[in-house]
Write a structure and sequence with these properties.
Helices cover 41% and strands 18% of the residues. A five-stranded mixed beta sheet has the order 3-2-1-4-5, sandwiched between helices. The protein starts with a helix and ends in a 6-residue tail after the last helix. Helix 5 (146-157) packs parallel to helix 7 (184-199). The longest helix has 16 residues, at 120-135. The protein is globular. It has a single domain (30-199), classed as Nucleotidyltransferase, domain 5, CATH 3.30.420.10. It has 205 residues and is α/β, with parallel strands linked by helices.
Length: 205
């Protein structure tokens, strides 16, 4: 955590007046970006990005008309074993975008808003492995983990309860429909809906 803070301060000092300086400005609005990646591996040190899904959450509303849904060009690391993870085949990536173009779009879409997701640290670690060599910085955005928000809300209502934090179980408890599981945009929208539901009054426990 200390190393991350030092790196963010250094990145801000080096880039605050550059092309991406807006990413380092403090955010004070009521929006966040629900984000999900589909990748070739569950190891962030080697995972390549197959698709990116992101949708804007404003207050207690999911703005499904304001979203990012990008498939990337097939990476060399796409294997039969990795297809078992995400069910994305090489043919599904036909016509996909170059990684650099996809990252440009993502940075513009996110801006300096908080990034929210399910196991979001994994997605951010994968992104930073690709972003840092290209841009010279890591994502400075605040990260919000859906499962932590949900767990805290449940335990404020019932301190003795240890909730099931699996993606499908959270959705079931919150009565949120799962939108295209194991697609980046589907998981991003579902995560956004779960987050909004968690933030609205009492939730089922």
């Amino acid at each position: 955590m200390v190393l991350k803070t030092i790196r963010t301060v250094t990145d801000r000092w080096q880039h605050s007046k550059g092309e991406y300086g807006y990413l380092f400005e403090p955010y004070s609005g009521d929006e966040c970006i629900a984000l999900d990646l589909e990748t070739t591996s569950l190891d962030p040190q080697v995972a390549d990005i197959l698709s990116i899904g992101a949708v804007k959450v404003k207050g207690k509303k999911v703005i499904t008309s304001d979203k990012l849904d990008i498939k990337l060009q097939k990476p060399e690391t796409l294997t039969a074993d990795s297809i078992k993870i995400h069910r994305i085949r090489g043919v599904d990536l036909h016509g996909g975008e170059a990684l650099g173009d996809a990252l440009d779009q993502l940075l513009e879409f996110i801006g300096n808003r908080p990034i929210m997701g399910y196991y979001i640290d994994f997605d951010i670690a994968v992104l930073n492995r690709h972003i840092r060599p290209r841009y010279g910085f890591s994502l400075p955005n605040k990260a919000v983990e859906l499962s932590h928000v949900y767990q805290q809300k449940v335990q404020r209502m019932n301190p003795e309860l240890q909730p099931d934090l699996h993606f499908e179980k959270i959705a079931e408890k919150l009565q949120v429909p799962i939108m295209g599981r194991h697609t980046a945009i589907g998981d991003a929208v579902t995560t956004a809906l779960m987050y909004v539901r968690t933030m609205q009054g009492n939730i089922p426990v």
